[in-house]
Structure formats: structure tokens, C-alpha cells
Design a protein that fits this description.
Strand content: 15-25%
Radius of gyration: 16 Å
Strand order of the largest sheet: 1-2-3-4-5-6-7-8
Largest sheet: 8 strands, parallel, barrel
Structural class: alpha/beta
Shape: globular
Number of helices: 10
């Protein structure tokens, strides 16, 4: 894989609570220089990132219901709406993990569908394409739960399924990525995130079926 192709699959990420203005400026500068797919930042930084990346082709991604997924559906939908209005084009929402563990699949679907609907409405107003990625936090799920959650994501019309927040007890694994890809097929994307710090790991995730990589170490990945 070429450096350019790999860079185009990377969400260059800084979701640290203590990220400063300078940190976000550096993140965006690196993303623009390397032509990453997006920067992934907390929503407080969306407007700043959108201003810094205007005209570069690098998208702004933000997180919703992060990192626990344990806020109300309407709160997630509002977060997504505000983020799109501020300039985000990609929303990474955390699934209702408790509902997954309970087997309350109608609630899981509604949670995702509410965010997807909010994003679609606001994308139309903003006149730009916006997508939703659903973070499963696979470290807390069984293989059966991962499969069922992926199927619900497809039914709720999400654009991607994603492994992890990076704040759970574990990150992306090749096994989880492979299972997710096998379950969703080719129709939607698979994002591997959490613990990906070198090119070898990134390539293993891509070979398993990921077509987007979330990491804070993107520059090192494309320099290897």
C-alpha cells in the first residue's frame, strides 16, 4: 500500500481531555500536510478544526455520547446536530452498550437511528455530505453481541461500524475487525481504533477488513 493510500484511511485523532489550542492546531497542520482522511476531535474543537482545515480536503470528525455511550438518545442526537452545524462532516457515536448487554435491540437501533436522522437533516441544511460511525466498544462484547450490534447498525443505516473508543479496557483486535467485516459485508465501512501505534498493526487491521484507521500516531504510520 502506498503512503498516500494509507494516509487517506487515517482519522488523525486527539481526544484527550487536556488537549490545548496548540495541540489542535498541530493536529490539523499534520493532517493537512499528510492528506489524512480526517481529524477526530472532541466537539469543543470542531469549529476551530473546521476553520483550520477549510480548503484542505481533510474532514472534521467528532465524537458523540463519548466515551461511555450512556447518555440519552436525544442528547446524542442534539450533540450530532450541533457538531454538524459547527462544521463536522463525520460523527463517531458510542453505542448504548448497556442496551446491547441487556439484549434491548430495539433501543440500540433507535439510539443509532436518532443520530443518523439528526445528521441527515443537518447535513442537508449544511449542503455537505456527512456520515455516522458507530463505536461498538468491542472489548466489552461477546462475538455474538458484536455480530448482532453490527446487524442493527446496518438496519439503522449507519455508514461505519467502529471497534473502540480507546478509553475502554481494550482496543481494536484483528479478530474483532474480521468479524465486523464479515457481518456487515461490503455495504458499509469498518473503522479500527484503539491501540494502533505502528504501521504493522494498521496493515493487519486493513487486511482483516478495516477501511478506516483511527489513531493519534498517524504521522508515524505514514513515515514507517
Amino acid at each position: 500500500m502506498t503512503k498516500k493510500a494509507l494516509a487517506g484511511m487515517i482519522d488523525h485523532t486527539n481526544l484527550k481531555a487536556f488537549a490545548t489550542t496548540k495541540d489542535i492546531e498541530n493536529l490539523c497542520k499534520e493532517a493537512a500536510k499528510n492528506k489524512f482522511a480526517s481529524v477526530c476531535v472532541n466537539s469543543i474543537w470542531v469549529r476551530k478544526a473546521a476553520e483550520l482545515l477549510a480548503g484542505t480536503g481533510v474532514k472534521v470528525c467528532t465524537v458523540v455520547g463519548f466515551p461511555l455511550g450512556a447518555c440519552s438518545h436525544r442528547t446524542k442526537a442534539y450533540e450530532a446536530s450541533a457538531a454538524i452545524q459547527d462544521g463536522a462532516s463525520e460523527i463517531d457515536m458510542v453505542i448504548d452498550i448497556g442496551a446491547v448487554k441487556d439484549g434491548r435491540w430495539d433501543d440500540v437501533k433507535q439510539d443509532i437511528a436518532d443520530v443518523v436522522g439528526s445528521v441527515k437533516r443537518n447535513a442537508k441544511r449544511a449542503e455537505r455530505e456527512c456520515i455516522v460511525k458507530v463505536i461498538l466498544e468491542t472489548c466489552y462484547l461477546t462475538n455474538e453481541e458484536i455480530e448482532k450490534a453490527c446487524r442493527v447498525c446496518v438496519k439503522a443505516k449507519a455508514n461505519f461500524v467502529k471497534t473502540s473508543t480507546g478509553f475502554g479496557s481494550g482496543g481494536a483486535t484483528v479478530e474483532a475487525v474480521k468479524l465486523m467485516r464479515e457481518t456487515v459485508g461490503k455495504g458499509i465501512g469498518v473503522k479500527a481504533a484503539g491501540g494502533i501505534r505502528d504501521k504493522e498493526t494498521a496493515m493487519a487491521m486493513i487486511e482483516a477488513g478495516a477501511n478506516r484507521i483511527g489513531c493519534s500516531n498517524g504521522v508515524a504510520l505514514v513515515k514507517d
